[in-house]
Give the backbone structure.
Amino acid sequence: MNGNNRFRQIHRRLSVAFTAAVIVSTIAVLQEKSTAWVGLLTLLPPCLLMLTGLYLFLLPYAARWRGKWE
């Protein structure tokens, strides 16, 4: 598995982790047991999703840029 496929798998798994974090956060709020760490738990996956998503978004542009200079 090359690096690009690894990033795609990480991105997919982070989306599952984000969904689970939102569900846990929603249940905690409904039970009125919400704490600061539950909210922060929900913020971590989107930050990582943004980084991996930007990488995947820029891959085609980087390939074109490298192709012009070779």
